[in-house]
Amino acid sequence: MELSELGLDPWVAGKARELCRPDLSAARVTAVDRGRYRVRDQHGEVPAELTGRLLRLAESSEDLPCVGDWVCVRHRDAGTRATIHSVLPRRSFLRRKAAGRDVEFQMIAANIDVAFIVQACHFDFNVRRLERYLVMAREGHIEPVVMLTKTDLVTAGELERLIGLIRRMGVQTDIVCVSNVTGEGVERVRAQMAPGKTYCLLGSSGVGKTTLINRLLGGDSLETREVSQTGEGRHTTTRRQLIVLQDGGLLIDMPGMRELGMLGAGEGIGETFADIDALARSCRYPDCRHGGEPGCAVRAAIERNELADEHLQNYLKLRKESEFHELSHAERRRKDRAFGRFVHAHKKGKDGEERG
Ligand SMILES: Nc1nc2c(ncn2[C@@H]2O[C@H](COP(=O)(O)OP(=O)(O)OP(=O)(O)O)[C@@H](O)[C@H]2O)c(=O)[nH]1
Ligand SMILES: [Mg+2]
Ligand SMILES: [Zn+2]
After folding, report:
1. Of 59, 177, 277, 343, whose CA is between 20 and 30 Å from 312?
2. Any ligand 1 atom below 6 A from CB of 138
3. DSSP single-letter state for residue 230
4. From atom 9 of ligand 1, which residue's Cα is the shortest distance away?
5. Tell me, what's the pLDDT at 100?
6. pLDDT at 62 over 90
7. Which residues make Cβ contacts (< 8 Å) with residue 113, sequence separation at least 6?
8. Taking the model in full, what pTM does it have?
9. What pLDDT is recorded for position 346?
């Protein structure tokens, strides 16, 4: 399998030529499971570990490889294992705020072209959560597509209603509907996926992500939940892995997300709420918070029933969270850098040979 079939594009290929010299080669991280990695290149897939140097130089978990990353490796033991020496720059990424109060980001996956934001029509459907995922994808420069699963559990009328709710929130992305039970829509998903492009399935536990991948693979090679459940309970998929489909598309399966922390960047928010941003340009005050100021064009649109109030509320909430994280993230980065300089100076002074 050529590296381009594994998703290597000219931009990353250029980075690889520059950074994997002189005796390393490029490979893609296909699985991550608590510190254990697998990488794949034109020779096949092998287990891999990080060099001590990579671990030492990492300032935060964001600097460590995640599934979908391109890395520079050296093969060992007659090509049966590899060591990962560095992570190539990411073209796109999915990340979230790590659990806990600390402001640190956790990389979920990298170098993805399209993220399917998956919600089940039954029990799981929630437009606010959907918007959060849309922001998350766009912030990481990934094109989102909404996917509704388990359509076999609702009537056609109910499905129409759900799609209407999504559209009412100003969501203009594609919406695909599938049932893994009847197979409806599965071929449409397959047709949307191009060879050498990377896709991921993002959504709560139990919505049918792995079941869909199995259907696309035409078998049941991946573990799914035995009995049909409502979405509560344990996670079936526990590791993130990149799967190569027969038609050449690359698909990342991941565990459902329990906690969807908010990420930095107003960028993703701006794109997801483009309708509000456009209206806001006509507000009387340039710094209007749309909280009842006179001449507010956003409020006026809600009054005219052209904009859902819930959509605005979600926007205001996400923007507030985002501003908070932006600030604390910047603050933390600054401290980290100061700390890094301290360690560096300290090492230089104390033991000059501690290097590499
Ligand atoms: N009725 C119905 N049930 C489905 C459909 N797709 C999946 N299921 C069932 O939903 C349950 C959960 O499916 P999984 O594929 O394991 O869900 P998942 O999204 O991979 O869950 P995690 O791995 O925990 O994140 C299983 O019992 C499936 O059989 C569907 O389209 N319709
Ligand atoms: Mg799964
Ligand atoms: Zn306003």
Report:
1. 177
2. no
3. -
4. 228
5. 55
6. no
7. 92, 142, 143, 197, 198, 199
8. 0.78
9. 46
